[in-house]
Design a protein that fits this description.
Largest sheet: 7 strands, mixed
Distance between the termini: 51 Å
Shape: globular
Strand content: 15-25%
Number of domains: 4
Low-confidence stretches: none
Strand order of the largest sheet: 5-4-16-15-14-6-7
Structural class: alpha/beta
Bound molecules: ligand MGD, iron/sulfur cluster, molybdenum atom
Mean pLDDT: 96
């Protein structure tokens, strides 16, 4: 019988009464999807939809994008500036002038008393590029502290460092279109279907049209691993060993591209000598991948007409993060797979504008991939801004991960946090709490007042979020795309651009340097500074970006970036001519001897503690935690545990356990799953007072990025009722 036939109502879409759709770019991950947000007659954002003619997402969005209009009026938004004299007092609401006066005078007081570098600034990968650029100008050109960094040190620093070491500059050389032609894809520590769902969709579509082998290297059976042809469940932290072994096989069997190596690289001899020690039999003992698989993968990759590698945090967040990136670059250079359609080494970036901060924020140098260490660069930027080049430091200062220890030791006395939440996202958060308590002044500039850091702040500056502002983001494939303003900043919050420029006015030097008021004027400054650089955006402007649904850099202000009709187009790939950013134009092949330096499981702490993300949540949940259609799928912290390991310890599915590391403990609900091996547990890092109470975060020596994913822990029984109560308290926080 056909149930209800003829009686059933047809499905009706709820009419949201959208009056106007406004073009913008998603503010969560670095895929860079084009979104239209629907606003109703009251100018309230009520719907989101993918943009059909945008090359990146072709009409698609993931769960976060499709619900993104809900973040504007989500609970916990900052509504007015707040100040207080000590972290034990209550906050007082004040007007913007009073809040900025207090912040500005505290910065100056601290700098006068303890020196210029005693005040630190830590920013983000989530503001608009124009805002990054302006914060960089304020920090480098006016405030003058050298202890200025971003949360990208927790995220992309190893990729940046690895690209610089191999190619002489940062800048991912490939693009999503490479999936269309590649004949072999390796993915290291990257879970595309959950973390970059639309990049995954692009890859899957290409692979459905024309099957090519997908090899996933990840200690967990991630969703991407489930779709792979081969899954290599690597021992955590040992990717460099696997990479050396792959190169060993390739060189031994003569599968390398000698012509490419000879014409475009230096250093092959040193790499040959180093990888001699990494025969598959010896390597297998360290990296946990058997010798035959190593040989098969090496042959598959080297014999493919074109082959590409992608990676994300499984590589970057490791004590060998930068070396892992260099290893991937080595492999691709050695097989002639750089600057070629379908042959590339493409870091899958994290936050929506982690690329923008790398290019323009001046965190690790000066704008447009310029270096503080280079006197010509200091001169150029100094002249352009009207700042004495001697005012700039001559080398980079502390990274985020070194700024917190410097607060502990008293070297740094004041901190301005812009759009980042280290109380949940840094390793060993108990230590971070104690560190923040020591500050004479903490300024928190965030869109949400319930961000945990406000517990320790003296000044809170409420900022507009995402499309309450106008400017650009750059995505994983170097595509600069337009974020149009959909709605005004919530209540009395202000755009970060406005806050930063107003802060400049509190400084004598800030009155002399020009701070433009609109983001398109700021963009014009960036265009001018970009001319002739690798990151050339001189052919772009805001309107062209919207019309093209984003343009990739380099995109020059001359006919080299025009299509047949005279429209602007960017270069889809870098290094097509085999010329790299070192003085002799050659890339570097670098030997990577492996030294075991991780915290590894032992008798007392027998499990690997791994951590990462879930599709429906973004980071510390200041946004997705309040969007019902995201939060309802993962409302509470949980831990993946292997059923066999659980049976041995008497742990049952959906009961609470205490997880203990050398740093501290956390109580968490257990989900039994074969996704993790017998000796590993995995906890998403989205939940406050959870996995980062346990992590150690040893640092990569080149990038200073923490090894979030390789720590040791043990599991203990806990009173179920107490644990449930604690869990409810945390959820309601
Ligand atoms: N839904 C959602 N999407 C996001 C984000 C989010 O918070 N939520 N955040 C964005 C940001 S900022 C980032 S950086 C990206 C992160 O994107 P991904 O890096 O893809 O995500 P993670 O879950 O952090 O880690 C990926 C995998 O690394 C594996 N791994 C752990 N140790 C190792 C190892 O030693 N070797 C290898 N090969 N793999 C290892 C883990 O098992 C995990 O499955 O996602 C972006 N997209
Ligand atoms: N254990 C473990 N820890 C990790 C990771 C892991 O895999 N495991 N991953 C690391 C990685 S890759 C990353 S990127 C970090 C992320 O770490 P964080 O940057 O600390 O995390 P978010 O929650 O994204 O914090 C961003 C803050 O900026 C605010 N915000 C958003 N948009 C705006 C805006 O336009 N203006 C202003 N002023 N504020 C805004 C948000 O409300 C939020 O409070 O976490 C790291 N921590
Ligand atoms: S894939 Fe990333 S950019 Fe695209 S809608 Fe989802 S979160 Fe936004
Ligand atoms: Mo990230």
């Amino acid at each position: 019988m056909l149930f209800g036939r003829g009686k059933k109502n047809p499905i009706k879409m709820v009419d949201k009464k959208v009056e106007k759709w406004i073009y913008t770019t998603c503010g969560y991950c670095s895929t860079g999807c084009s979104i239209e947000v629907g606003v109703n007659a009251e100018k309230k954002a009520v719907a989101s939809r993918g943009v059909g003619d945008a090359d990146v997402n072709r009409g698609k969005l993931c769960i976060k994008g499709i619900t993104e209009h809900d973040i504007f009026e989500a609970s916990g938004r900052g509504v007015e500036p707040l100040i207080r004299d000590s972290m034990h007092d209550d906050y007082r609401p004040v007007d913007w002038d009073a809040a900025l006066d207090k912040a500005g005078s505290e910065i100056q007081r601290i700098q006068e008393k303890y020196g210029r570098d005693s005040f630190a600034i830590v920013s983000t990968g989530q503001m608009l590029t124009e805002e990054f650029y302006t914060l960089g100008k304020l920090t480098r050109g006016v405030i003058g502290t050298n202890n200025y960094d971003g949360n990208t040190t927790l995220c992309m620093a190893s990729a940046v460092s690895g690209y610089k070491r191999s190619f002489g500059s940062d800048g991912p050389p490939g693009c999503y279109d490479d999936f269309e032609t590649t004949e072999c894809l390796m993915a290291f520590g990257s879970n595309l279907p959950e973390q970059h769902p639309i990049i995954y969709w692009r890859m899957r579509e290409a692979r459905e049209k024309r099957h090519f082998p997908l090899i996933v290297i990840d200690p967990r059976v991630t969703m991407l691993a489930q779709f792979a042809d081969m899954h290599l469940p690597i021992t955590p932290g040992t990717d460099v060993v696997l990479l050396n072994a792959l190169m060993h096989v390739i060189l031994k069997e003569g599968l390398e591209d000698r012509d490419y190596i000879n014409q475009h690289t230096n250093g092959i001899e040193a790499v040959e000598a180093c990888v001699k020690d990494y025969d598959p039999v010896s390597a297998a003992k360290i990296c946990g991948i058997d010798e035959d698989t190593i040989r098969t993968v090496a042959r598959l990759y080297a014999k493919a007409g074109t082959a590409m590698s992608i990676w994300t945090m499984g590589i970057n967040q490791s004590t060998h993060g930068s070396d892992g990136v260099v290893g991937i670059n080595n492999l691709n250079l050695m097989t002639g797979n750089i600057g070629k359609e379908g042959g590339t080494s493409l870091s899958i970036t994290g936050q929506c504008n982690a690329m923008g901060t790398r290019e323009w924020s001046s965190c690790s140098g000066l704008p447009g991939y310029r270096a503080l260490e280079n006197p010509d660069h200091r001169e150029e930027v100094g002249k352009f801004w009207g700042v004495d080049p001697e005012f700039f430091p001559k080398k980079r200062g502390l990274t985020e991960t070194d700024i917190f220890p410097a607060i502990e030791t008293g070297q740094i006395k004041g901190l301005w946090l812009v759009a980042t939440n280290p109380m949940t996202s840094m390793p060993n958060t108990a230590r971070i709490r104690k560190t923040l308590e020591k500050l004479e002044c903490l300024i928190v500039q965030d869109s949400y007042v319930d961000v945990e850091t406000t517990q320790y702040a003296h000044v809170f500056l409420p900022a507009g979020v995402w499309a309450e502002k106008e400017g650009v983001f750059t995505n994983t494939e170097r595509r600069v795309n337009m974020v149009r303003k959909v709605t005004e900043p919530y209540k009395n919050s202000k755009s970060d651009l406005w806050i930063i420029s107003q802060m400049a006015k509190r400084f004598e030097q800030g009155k002399k340097v020009h701070f433009p008021e609109t983001s398109s004027e700021v963009f014009d400054e960036m265009r001018a500074l970009s001319k002739g650089r690798l990151v050339d955006i001189s052919g772009m402007d805001h309107d062209k970006l919207e019309a093209a649904r984003g343009l990739q850099w380099p995109c020059r202000d001359d006919e080299t970036s025009n299509d047949a009709d005279g429209n602007k187009v960017g270069d889809p790939r870098l290094y097509m001519d085999g010329k790299f950013q070192f003085p002799d134009g050659k890339a570097k092949l670098i030997p990577l001897p492996y030294i075991e330096n991780n915290e590894v499981p032992d008798e007392e702490y027998p499990f690997w503690l791994n951590s990462g993300r879930l599709v429906e949540h973004f980071h510390t949940r200041t946004k997705t935690g309040k969007v019902a259609n995201c939060n309802k799928f993962s409302p509470t912290a949980f831990m993946e545990m292997n059923p066999d390991a659980a049976a041995e310890l008497g742990v049952e599915h959906m009961t609470y356990v205490r997880v203990v590391s050398k740093r501290g403990d956390a109580v968490v609900l257990v989900q039994l799953t074969q996704r993790v091996p017998h000796n590993m547990v995995f906890i998403p890092f989205h939940f406050h007072d959870c996995v980062n109470r346990l992590t150690l975060g040893l640092l990569d020596p080149h990038s200073r990025q923490p090894a979030f994913k390789q720590n040791a822990c043990r599991i203990e029984a806990v009173d179920q009722e107490e644990a449930a109560k604690l869990n409810v308290e945390l959820r309601n926080y």
